[in-house]
Amino acid sequence: MPLDNATIQALAEHLENAEHTARDVTKITDDHPSMDWDDAYRIQEALQARKEARGQKTVGLKCGLTSRAKMKQMGVDLPCFGFVSDYMASADGAEIKIAELIHPKVEAEICIVTKTDLRGPGCHIAQVLAAIDFVVPGVEVIDSRYRDFKFDLKSVLADNTSASRFVIGGRSRQADELDLRTLGVVLEKNGEIVAMAAGAAVMGHPAAAVVALVNHLASRGRDLPAGSMVMTGGVTEAIAVKAGDSIAARFQDLGTVSLRFG
Ligand code: 0L1
Ligand code: MG
Description:
Elements lengths: L4 H17 L15 H17 L4 E7 L3 H7 L5 E6 L3 E2 L4 E2 L8 E10 L10 H7 E11 L10 H6 L4 E6 L15 E6 L2 E7 L7 H14 L9 E6 L4 E2 L5 E6 L3 E7 L1
Parallel strand pairs: 1-10, 3-7, 4-13
Antiparallel strand pairs: 1-2, 5-6, 5-10, 5-11, 6-7, 8-9, 8-12, 12-13
Helix pairs in contact: 1-2
């Protein structure tokens, strides 16, 4: 039986409180084991509505768990989708306050900005390639609200796929100037290389993550409007960070995105 609306709203509030107070909670399926996929996305949508009602704008969408490395790290085998809000954005090189977060990790992501509407079901990669306005490099800071990052996919969907902060930096390029599959990414922490991969790590091609997002949105009765920024998912496993760490994600042809944790 689907969760009733009052429970959906209460769970969205519960997860947002965990975010605001930087205190972890146990995964929500512990208390709601019969929760289904639709319930999980309804909670995420309620979370988004709470933020938007407060004036926090949705500025992008995110695909998560799109690389084998990330799926293996988290023990799941399906991608997931969430959103990013304006207050989550930090400038390239900025310091992110660790005290505002629970147990952050960073991910290097290829981000795609679209110029035409995309609509599923049946969205195809050729339509996504035709719809790309430009490509920019980014780093996502994920911060699951669940204790020790221990969750199942339904709990993580409800928790907006651990979205917390993000940085867009480097330089934007036209997609036809790039081979998004062979585009190399090197992730450094405190000057040491901690992970590296190429764009193909993301579902064979980062645009394939956008295809999956568009088809997912169709299942929620939505489309992807022109001008959307989509973070296509970490190319490598996520890297844990603490106060004092500095991160540089170096993207072939797209420059470097950097951030510090204070
Ligand atoms: O952006 C992501 O890949 C995060 C997906 C949610 C799972 C996690 O917190 O690692
Ligand atoms: Mg991510």
